[in-house]
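quick one before i forget lol
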Amino acid sequence: MHIAMTRREDGSEAENTDCRTIQMLCMEGDIDGILEKVMSGQAVKKKVLRRALDIMIGLSLKGYEGKAVGAIFLIGDIEGIRRHTSQMIINPFKGWKDINILDEKQKPTFEAFCQLDGAFVLDHRGFAHYAGRMIQVRGGMDCDRDDPGRRSIDRNNGTGTRSRASRYITEMTKTIAVSLSHNGEITLFERGKEIGRINRRVMQVDQKILHRFIMSDPEGRDRQFKEININKEKNITHVE
């Protein structure tokens, strides 16, 4: 079980009857297990998927400028994604060929553009091609009047539609979808099936272990990716 941790949800110091523990807002899910489920035939590099997950985890825990957000990363089949999506806004990446999610300096760019309506599109190497793509799902009960065979879905319509859109696009294309709902839940889809889920929750953490972790990196340079054991079950903790 992997857990990503940051400050408390309300930003305040919650009262705790047990002086040895502290409440932390966490992300709970087996990240390594999810990455292992990625089909061997996929061209998507796992380090690209892992970086997308890191960004989604940060947005789930902290939001963007203090506000909860929802977003979709589509990674892989650029041509297939283009056929099943449409551009909602002017593409901010048009003319830019070297914006890569693996470049740590570009992290603020990806976080900012996740606020746009529609999906974020990356190729298997992590290069950004589009932001603001609307996934067009054929079939379903909620149809457009102009085209009863098509249902258009964007990420502002809630967790259900976002998940259905992610499931559909991965069924129709060789793509991995990472979906973040406004309630902080992260879901991954491949070949039309859910392959993993990471949930946000509040948990109790031993203060001594947390203190030892912070003191091992007082300037916080590597805190996001360090790992420590927090209990006898050897849960892994990532701290933002």
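fyi Helices lie at 31-37, 46-62, 78-83, 107-113, 159-172, 207-215.
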